[in-house]
Every structure is written in structure tokens, then in C-alpha cells.
């Protein structure tokens, strides 16, 4: 089991079995990378949903 970074709002389950962590902050989609939150190359959650990304939402 992976440790989920604090602030994570949803997890993308990639085809290779990995997990990518995301959150929205101040209108920007942020991606957890190398132990820090960085602005994602994907502009918004809606784009991920429209393209069929497998997501798990965190409450």
C-alpha cells in the first residue's frame, strides 16, 4: 500500500498499475511528483474524466 500524500483529492490508476496523486488548488490541477506538489500538465479534472482516466475520489 502506498502512502497517500496529504491533500490528495483523487488518485489516477494508470494502466501500468501505478498510482498518480492529484488535487485542485487555487484553480490549478496539482500532481504529486518527487515529494512535492507541482502544476500538472493536464489542465483540469474534467479533461481526465472526458478521456476515461480511471479515478478514485478521496473524501
Task: Give a structural overview.
The mean pLDDT is 94. The two termini are 18 Å apart. The chain is mainly β. It has one domain (10-57). It has a five-stranded antiparallel sheet with strand order 4-3-2-1-5, with no helix packed on it. It has one helix at 45-50; strands at 10-13, 19-25, 28-33, 36-39, 55-57. Helix content is 10%, strand content 41%.
Summarize the structure.
By secondary structure, this protein is mainly beta.
Which helices and strands, and how do they pair?
Blueprint: E1 10-13, E2 19-25, E3 28-33, E4 36-39, H1 45-50, E5 55-57
Antiparallel strand pairs: 1-2, 1-5, 2-3, 3-4
Q: Please give the order of strands in the largest beta sheet.
A: 4-3-2-1-5
Hey, roughly how much beta strand do the residues contain?
35-45%
Main sheet attributes: strand count, strand direction, barrel closure: 5 strands, antiparallel
Order of helices and strands: EEEEHE
How many distinct beta strands? Answer: 5
Number of domains: 1
Over the alpha carbons, how many angstroms does the gyration radius reach? Answer: 11 Å
Structural class: mainly beta
N- and C-termini, Cα separation: 18 Å
| Quaternary | single chain
Amino acid at each position: 500500500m502506498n502512502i497517500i500524500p496529504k491533500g490528495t483529492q483523487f488518485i489516477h490508476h494508470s494502466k501500468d498499475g501505478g498510482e498518480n496523486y492529484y488535487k485542485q488548488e487555487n484553480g490549478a490541477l496539482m500532481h504529486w511528483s518527487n515529494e512535492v506538489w507541482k502544476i500538472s500538465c493536464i489542465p483540469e479534472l474534467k479533461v481526465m474524466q472526458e478521456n476515461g482516466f480511471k479515478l478514485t475520489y478521496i473524501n
